Predict the structure of 4-hydroxy-tetrahydrodipicolinate synthase.
Amino acid sequence: MDFNQVLTAMVTPFNDQDEINYDETERLIDYLLDNGTEGIVAVGTTGESPTLSHEEKLEFLTFVVAYVNGRVPVIAGTGSNNTKQSIVLSQEAEKIGVDSVMLVTPYYNKPSQEGMYQHFKAIAESVKVPVMLYNIPGRTVVRLELDTVLRLAEVDNIVAIKEATGDLDLISQIIKETPDDFSVYSGDDNLLLPILALGGTGIVSVASHMVGNEMNQMIQSFKSGKHTEAVKIQQDIAPVIKALFSAPNPTAVKYALSMKGLNPGHVRLPLIALSACEKSHVDDKVGRYY
């Protein structure tokens, strides 16, 4: 499957009643597609999936798939540390019509490499849609090692990985040793350019809420051989990326979107709103994109 290059891990808008705000979801989707986003990841961790009920996830995915209406791929974050639960959610997402599912490494229960292999294999084999793995040990404690990724790449519908280990040696070997049609996406906004240089495909991004066009231009510049131009773009947006992760995600990006004129609403507990000092810092670094 061609996921495209700049995929946005989309926030979930909430209203004052702490319900999903579907009017704002429409505005957000249109804004993202007008500003460099080529694919949407819905109900992922940036979408505050730990605080969404099973029913909310299904309703939101149904809405997003219908509203996007085939304009770009929609990828559902259906991974968890409960294999049976992830199978059910993945199957339901497939019925809704998502183009793919994303499966995060199981958090908290710390499975072995073999346990993770069996976990991902079981979920992938329960659906027909393409599967993207998500390797993020900073959030989940465990990480997929090279041999496990290579074994999983042999499963017919496991076709990509979002790599957020920050380990460029590992990423390089994954790109080198997986089949040519296996895609590696940066899961770290600040590592997009190095991963492209290693042969990566693109990015699953949070910062693309604010700098999606710039990320798109960076990729196009790099691929057309304008490496100096690509480096300059990376350097220009680096402070923006750092500021958007200066507080627990997606707190800062929701604030930045509100300053841009959108209304993504609050973050759900246990996350809390930015302090005045934190807002000032985001304004200083991101304000030129408002």
Q: What stands out?
A: Residues 55 and 61 are 10 Å apart (CA to CA).
